[in-house]
Amino acid sequence: LDLLDQVRPNNMILVARWSRYTGFTNTTFGEQPIFPIDSRFGKENKAAIEIIKRNMQELISFCAKRNISLWIIKQVPETGEIAPAQNLISYMSGRIRNLSDEKQTEVDHQRMVSAINNVFDKLSREYDVNCLDFSSLLLLDRQTINYFEDRAVYRDYCHLTRHGLDLVRPFVVSMLNEI
Prior knowledge:
Number of helices: 5
Radius of gyration: 18 Å
Oligomer: single chain
Strand content: 5-15%
Distance between the termini: 21 Å
Shape: globular
Strand order of the largest sheet: 1-2-3
Number of strands: 7
Structural class: alpha/beta
Order of helices and strands: HEHEHHEEEEEH
């Protein structure tokens, strides 16, 4: 916060894999949770959500006092594949016969992000916070889009390729024009 106090930007954009902070991880790929899920209930870590909520309220207050607009970008859906871009290269070069296309469903995505999105939605109603959600741009028939126009959308299970960014670019440009 000291740096923000010195620099005093007009806007701050927060983007993250928010579900990692509430206990959800991609255990298929060996991730360890930052805050473990409450195994008694199989749900997100409520203590972690309260910590996030409290810290966000402090950040919002800090920004408001300094006329810094706060933007939160909600988590995009993840894919079910480790490396769609690498899979596509292997498939096109003939090193593998079948192109894997493991997807995450919209239901899976909502299960991972619903608790944190509820926090963000509440904060945006109570304070001057802008929340943006690109999820609908990366879902087709309620599943992640791993490949579009014969190109990979995701580099790995949670990061977009340049082609994936091209799918959300008009929305991002529109957002940046508002800033």
